[in-house]
Amino acid sequence: MLREWLERYKAFIAIFLVIVIIAGGVLLFYKLPGGRQPLEIVLTTPTPALSPEVEVYVGGAVTSPGWYSLGEGQGIEAAIMAAGGATTDADPTKVKLYVFEVDESFQPQRVSINRAELWLLEALPGIGPTLAQRIVDYRNQNGSFERIEELKRVGGIGEAKYEGLEDLITVE
Questions:
Q1: What is the mean pLDDT of the chain?
Q2: What is d(CA 21, CA 144) in angstroms, rounded to the nearest whole number?
Q3: Is there a contact between 53 and 71 (Cβ–Cβ < 8 Å)?
Q4: Tell me, what's the pLDDT at 102?
Q5: Residue extents of the structural domains in the chain
Q6: 141 contacts 117 by C-beta, under 8 angstroms
Q7: Are 40 and 47 in contact (CB under 8 A)?
Q8: CB 46 within 8 A of CB 53
């Protein structure tokens, strides 16, 4: 019975397998070369008389994005390592480097707790996958946050954690 069924539908099975193989190849082609995220590094030049250190913002596809201090002679590799190293989806050939002049002010962009997706909430200091999901769940159940202080209503976010986030978040 099975043998008869296979004989009857072997052409359809062969066509189906060819389609699956072609679709898999197309997906692999589009996923591998272009799907990698760039590494982003922002350098601020130090005031020469104050310190040989430089403050560096490392973002993009790194484990722990944020600001790091680098000493004299340290380079891009040290900045990436200070941020916990590149993630598996990072493309080290696409490093973006921004250098700000001493008189240039830099205001980091704030994360909207009303619109941010899980991955962006997880990038905030002290917010892992569980807390990020709680923020999204709270937002889905109660509507948009009207003030950033309302974030303290989310389970697991107390006063100390909120104080570490208040300059990095917005409700816009």
A1: 79
A2: 44
A3: yes
A4: 55
A5: 1-35, 37-100, 111-170
A6: no
A7: no
A8: yes
Per-residue confidence band for 49, with pLDDT thresholds at 50, 70 and 90: very low
- E strands present in the chain: 37-44, 54-60, 66-70, 90-100, 111-112, 169-170
Contacts of 133 (CB under 8 A, 6+ apart): 118
Fold of 111-170: DNA polymerase; domain 1 (1.10.150)
> Which two three-digit tokens encode residue 27?
């997906």
d(CA 161, CA 127): 9
pLDDT of residue 96: 63
What's the whole-number mean pLDDT along residues 149-166?
92
Rounded to whole angstroms, the Cα distance separating 55 from 95 reads 18
- Residue 116, token pair as written in the block: 């941010």
Q: Is the pLDDT of residue 38 over 70?
A: no
Q: Measured between alpha carbons, how far is 96 from 65 in angstroms, rounded to an integer?
A: 14
- Looking at the DSSP bridge assignments, the partners of residue 69 are 55
Q: Where are the alpha helices (DSSP H) in 32-144?
A: 76-82, 118-122, 129-142
Q: What is the pLDDT of residues 74-128, one digit of tens each?
A: 777 888 888 888 888 777 666 666 655 555 555 667 889 998 888 889 888 889 8
3-state secondary structure of 51: coil
